[in-house]
What we know:
By secondary structure, the chain is mainly alpha-helical. It is 49% helix and 0% strand. The protein contains one helix and no strands. The longest helix has 24 residues. The chain is elongated. The model has no long low-confidence stretch (mean pLDDT 79).
Amino acid sequence: xxxxxxxxxxxxxxxxYLTLGEMLGSLHMQIAKGELRKSTWNTVVNLPS
Length: 49
């Protein structure tokens, strides 16, 4: 995944979403027919400024 550099505090908050994305991608590859051509994920997370 392409993720910009973030502080440790922000990474602690978004880390679970990255793990979830990896798990969903793995599930998709196990059940999909053919190759994955594109996957787009949109999330809304309130991060500290």
